[in-house]
Design a protein that fits this description.
about 160 residues; 4 helices; mainly alpha
């Protein structure tokens, strides 16, 4: 019995760590790093090189976090007796998880678009591409915060009330 609890604690820790890396990285990048770089260096070619280098390094962490979150999230959900399957609306717990999963899929799509489409451009980005990339970054910050809120509700709804 103790082994199951230890494994669950490790899975929960890893899930939380991957969440912090992805969503915390987004928040830090969008609210602190990018505005600070622009304020200090302006919008010259060195600024763009620096921001591209930071985002390239963060992309690796994001991809690892996405895979880790998918694996640990499935293990966590399947352990809860309230879980009724992916994309189920059978009870409040499953409904919250479904909404959370939809937002996670949206975050993954945005991250992949920013990285694989906007990040693989030929030549310097146009001002409209830069604006789109920044807007998508802030969209992912908002989605990430909403996912954290839904995580709180999933814990509240996933706890079986005492008889």
């Amino acid at each position: 019995m103790l082994t199951k609890q230890i494994v669950f604690a490790i899975v929960t820790f890893l899930h939380d760590l991957f969440t912090v890396v992805w969503i915390g990285g987004l928040i830090t990048l969008g609210i602190t790093v990018m505005p600070s770089i622009k304020k200090v260096l302006g919008m010259g070619p060195q600024t763009k090189k620096l921001m591209d280098a930071i985002q390239k390094r963060l992309s690796v962490l994001v991809y690892v976090s996405i895979v880790g979150l998918l694996l640990t999230g499935l293990l966590q959900a399947r352990r809860n007796p309230m879980f009724q399957g992916l994309f189920s609306f059978g009870n409040p717990y499953s409904t919250v998880l479904t909404l959370k999963h939809i937002l996670v899929l949206a975050m993954i799509a945005v991250a992949l678009y920013r990285s694989l489409v906007l990040g693989r451009r030929n030549g310097p980005p146009t001002p409209s591409q830069e604006k789109l990339s920044a807007g998508l970054l802030f969209l992912n910050v908002i989605l990430g915060v909403a996912i954290l809120l839904l995580s709180g509700f999933s814990v509240a709804f996933g706890t079986v009330p005492p008889a």
